[in-house]
Amino acid sequence: MIKQPVLVELQYFVKSVSHLYKGVPLKDTGALVKSALHLLEDLPSTRDAVFDYFTLVFNNAVKIYMLSAEKNLPDPSVDDEAVQEIHEALERLVTGGPAAWCPLISSWCLKLLGDVCKKHCRRRPPDIRGACNLWLGCSAIRYLLSLSALCFEKLTEREMDECIQELLTIYGTHTPYFDWVVARLGGCFPKKVISSMLTMGVNRFTGDFDQPSESEVEILSYLGLAHETDLRCALKATMERDMAGKQAVPYLLLLAKASETIAQSLVEVFLELHDENRLQTLKIQPKNWPPNIGLPYVLHTVAGMLLKVKKHATEVTLILAKMSTQHGWCQELLETMFVELETLVLEKHTAPLLEDIIRDGSRDALWRGCASDTPFLQQVAVRLILLASFKSNSVFHQSIVYLLSTNDSTVTATSKPHLNALVRLLGGPPGAPDAPKVRPALETAFEKILLAPHKRTECWNVLHNLVELLKLERAAALGSPQRKVNCIGVVHELLDRVLKIWEAFMCQHRLDDQEPGTDLANGNAPNGHFKRIKSDQSGTAEPMETDAKGVVSLNDLIHETVRLIDCLDIGKTVTIGTAESLKLSQLLVKYFFHCLQLPSGAPVSGVTVSETLEESLNRVYGLLSRHCGHRKAARTAALRELLEGALFMYGALFGSQTESEAYSFGKPDDLLIKLNQRQGIALNASRATVLHAGVIGQGPKIPSKGAIGPASEMQNRLLNAIVACCQDVHYDHQATIDGFSYVSLLLVELVSPDVMYNGLPWPEEEFTRVTMERDLQIRRTFRQSPILWSILGLVACYRPSLCYCSVLLRALCASALHQWRSKTAETMNGQKTDLMYVTTKLLELMALAQLLPPPLSYLHIVLEYFDGPEIAYVLKECVWNYMKDHVPSPVLFVCDPHGFHWRDPLTSRPPPQYTNPLRNTMQKKLTKVGHLYHQMFVGPELRNPTNSSNGNQQHQLAPSGHGFMGGNGEQPVAAKAGPSGNIGTLPPTGPGGNVMIID
Asked: What is the mean pLDDT of the chain?
């Protein structure tokens, strides 16, 4: 039996609700609410009536709220207490009551929300966010939503599916007023709600309309923004369920066309399927699509979607480019996209696709695409970068730097995709009136090398790609796009950076090879004299070569930098500054000596470019010739560096030796007091001065070994470098003579110990006592650096350049003359001693330079037949006196129409007082020198009885193989001018032909 209090409550509830429906206002609304709640708890059979009353209360509260909201009045909060009590009671029932209440209450809430929203919204609501802001201002609506969400947490899996189905059913009858409720409550189980909505949309999609309803788009977009992962999973599952692609694919594409959020998720689904290699399993068949959705329409739709997507659109574009080799529609799709994108760019609009590139979101993928060997992929990547360059020059510059820094070793030698892309990029965006400048890109590439020289592979790639690029530009026809870019001119402008890079590599290589304890890195010697430095490690440093794996070494970087310099027209079209010119001269000479230290015959570099040492040296010769031929300051600097390096820094390469190497001191040094006691008391008491030419107790210093002298090959390399510096590019022989004249002056500066007595005239022989010490020092320098003979021999061929070396010739002659007068001057078993060698070489040089006229020019031939006193006599009377009276000056030489300087032997024949001593000496040894005597004296006198003979008469000076330069077409003679007798191929020195130097 029903309890009496429940019946009383029921009677009160029925009576009060009846009056309420008749329009009679209630006196106590709170009492009626409490009665209804008691009935709901104690008498569940009355729940329909109670819920109807609750619906009436909530409807009344919402109605008053909407009237106030439309008039912009404050919320009067009518029945807030009743609504709150109902909400709290139902919440207690859900949380503490039986589980059966949850489906009932959630169903009531959803139906009530649908009815209230549709009934009290007189016009179509704004978007979902606006609808949420409008409805959530009402406390009754908020209570219903929170109560629904609370019920959802208590539902089972089956009950949840039923609840979602009911939610979507209400949505189908109350849209668009119920959209915001679906979007708001769908967040409780987003994956299921999104999947259900997609399934519902695919099932009812027939293709008769262009796009899904706005409600679907808004709800899915709203849920997708907060639950991206669930949206992607739902989209992926929808595509997999519809394997034939009859309805799902076109429906999803139309959804993506209407919503950027769905489009972004669909792009990510595409990437997931591509990463999983499952794109081929999706059999998309456009023939099964609705008739009004054809392939062209879909391609335009997808192209527009890619332009709107903010992330991953570039990756999808590149994937489509890769797929274009198998699917023709991919190329059509991409071309459609590029047409739209170029239209936007040229109209100065932008697109999220370009913004993604500008923000550096997908540049790496684009750069990899540019370096790909797939032509269409490379084309797509380059076009995207060029279009992005309209909006940001940094994209253009960074792309060039990346392509310069890359080099795919897997591709063939003939296929260079990164260079192809680089050439296209350098041309700039098509149709752009102002293409971005190339200089910032190359400047950044050079700075990258300077900041990270330890990344040798990247550094080598930049240099090598630039070399290839400049070669292509030089080979291109005039007016071609490559010529318009003018990369050669840009590198010219950045020559200072290139020189810094080159210098950094050279310094690093020198530091790597330098032995501990030396201070050659800054060019400083312990004694402070730069020109006296003897580099012990110059000829022994082993260069770091490229190993079998292709690892880049410093040698490779140095050689590649020189190749880059060689690609420029140094001095031809662009004039560089003085500082850069001097720096380039210095680095060229350092590189020359660097090459000389490499093993002969071995490749100097082996990453991808393999060349021999001779090829590298020929490149140096060409660079020196072009650079020094246009700038006198450059020639001056290069010649100084060459001679200083050959004599001091890298003397070991040319057989030079130091003082410590020439002499050996086997015994230890004694105390100074012991050395003084050996001289005796009498010597100390006298006021005489004694000069010891040796070590006290050991006798005079005798060299234990002599300098080996330069090898013929090494000697020729140095002389070729000097010739390259001195030769004029316009074949002006006078300019070449000026260059070798500077070589003469520079030799005097480097070899002569001081600046005194360095003039051209030869003084009286007595005066040599004053200059004895400096003469011996010069003689010692020639003994320690035999390459000096070869250099002087080269200078002698370019008359009258050797005149400026008069002080060196004078010192050698004076020291030899004094030594021949000494008792120790003799020949051993008919073999030449060092003294005989020096004397012969001196006379050869003077004869080659025409400082000694015939017959004195034959002295070096007959000298070996004389003994010591006779040699001293001839040197004094014939050579020294003649040079004293005939100053070796350039004015003695005449210039012929071809620009060559020479002395006519018919007009410069020495007077008898200079030849008679030689004649008399030879007459005493006619049995040995008779044939020479006839050539030197008898023959010329028979042909020319007087000294005033006609100068046009042909005059045979010497037999074949020996002689002196004749006049008016006479053939030159062969004369020895260096230690090895070969100083390389020399240019013409007279009107008659070329000088050939033999032993």
From this structure: 77
- Determine how many CB atoms are found less than 10 A away from the CB of residue 245: 17
Q: Which of 240-249, 382-391, 645-654, 698-707 has the lowest mean pLDDT?
A: 698-707
DSSP reduced 3-state for 700: strand
Token output for 515: 């032995």
pLDDT at 956 over 70: no
Domain membership flag for residue 361? no
Condensed to tens digits (0 to 9), the pLDDT of residues 310-327 reads 888 888 888 889 888 888
pLDDT digits (tens, 9 = 90+) for 746-775: 999 999 888 888 888 888 888 888 888 989
pLDDT band per the 50, 70, 90 thresholds, residue 959: very low
- Amino acid 520: pLDDT: 37
Question: 933 has which bridge partners?
Answer: none
**899 shares its domain with 801:** yes
| Residue 781 and residue 647 share a domain | no
In whole angstroms, what is the distance from residue 409 CA to residue 258 CA? 46
Task: Please tell me the predicted confidence (pLDDT) of residue 573.
Answer: 66
Q: How many CB atoms lie within 10 A of CB 600?
A: 12
**What pLDDT was estimated at residue 11?**
66
| Domain limit, last residue, from 129, 155, 188 | 188
What span, in angstroms and rounded, lies between the C-alpha atoms of 361 and 1? 76
Sign for the CA dihedral angle at 569, 575, 576, 582 comes to positive
Instruction: Note whether residue 648 is domain-resident.
Output: yes
> Which residues make Cβ contacts (< 8 Å) with residue 159, sequence separation at least 6?
102, 103
The residue from 923, 940, 957 where one domain ends is 940
pLDDT, position 946: 57
Q: Omega of the bond prior to 855 within 30 degrees of 0, cis?
A: yes
For residue 448, the tally of other CB atoms under 10 A from its CB is 17
**3-state helix/strand/coil string of 523-589:** CCCCCCCHHHCCCCCCCCCCCCCCCCCCCCCHHHHHHHHHHHHHCCCECCCECCCHHHHHHHHHHHH
- Rounded Cα gap, residues 536 and 520, in angstroms: 10
Domain residues for the domain of 840 are: 757-940
967 contacts 697 by C-beta, under 8 angstroms = no
Give exposure, 12-36, as e/b (b: 16+ Cβ within 10 Å): bbeebbeebeeeeeeeebeebbbbb
343, part of any domain = no
- The candidate with the shortest Cα–Cα distance to 512, out of 451, 587, 594, 586, is 594
- 765 lies in the same domain as 873: yes
According to DSSP H, which parts of 822-858 are helical? 834-848
Q: Which of 415, 657, 445 is nearest to 535 (CA)?
A: 657
263 contacts: CB under 8 Å, gap ≥ 6: 256, 257, 305, 308, 309
Do both 500 and 621 map to the same domain? no
**Residue 140 and residue 101 share a domain:** yes
Q: What is the pLDDT of residues 64-95, one digit of tens each?
A: 888 887 776 665 554 577 788 888 888 888 88
Distance CA 52, CA 126 (A): 30
Residue 861 belongs to some domain of the structure: yes
Distance between CA atoms of residues 200 and 169, nearest Å: 11
Parallel, antiparallel, or unpaired: how do β-strands 699-700 and 694-695 relate? antiparallel
**What is the signed CA dihedral for 262, 265, 270, 272, rounded to 10 degrees?**
-160
Same domain, 495 and 581: no
910 and 777, same structural domain? yes
Reported pTM: 0.74
Q: Environment class of residue 654 by beta-carbon count within 10 Å: exposed (0-12), middle (13-18) or buried (19+)? A: buried
State the Cα–Cα distance between residues 85 and 92, nearest whole angstrom. 11
pLDDT tens track for 544-592: 344 334 688 888 899 999 999 998 877 666 678 889 999 999 999 999 9
For residue range 730-750, list pLDDT tens digits in order.
777 888 888 999 999 999 999
What does the pLDDT look like over 347-369, one tens digit per residue? 878 888 888 888 777 888 888 88
